[in-house]
Amino acid sequence: MAQIDGLPPLREVIATHDLQAKKALGQNFLLDLNLTARIARAAGDLTGADVIEVGPGPGGLTRGLLAEGARRVLAIEKDPRCLPALAEIAAAYPGRLQVIGGDALEIDPLDHLTPPIKIVANLPYNVGTELLVRWLTPPAWPPFWTSLTLMFQKEVAERIVARPGSKAYGRLALLAQWRSEARIVLTLPPSAFTPPPKIDSAVVHLTALPQPRYPAPAKLLERVVAAAFNQRRKMLRAALKSLDPQIEGRLDRLGIAPTARAEEIGLEQFCALARDLDTPRA
Question: Is the pTM of this model over 0.90?
Answer without folding.
Answer: yes
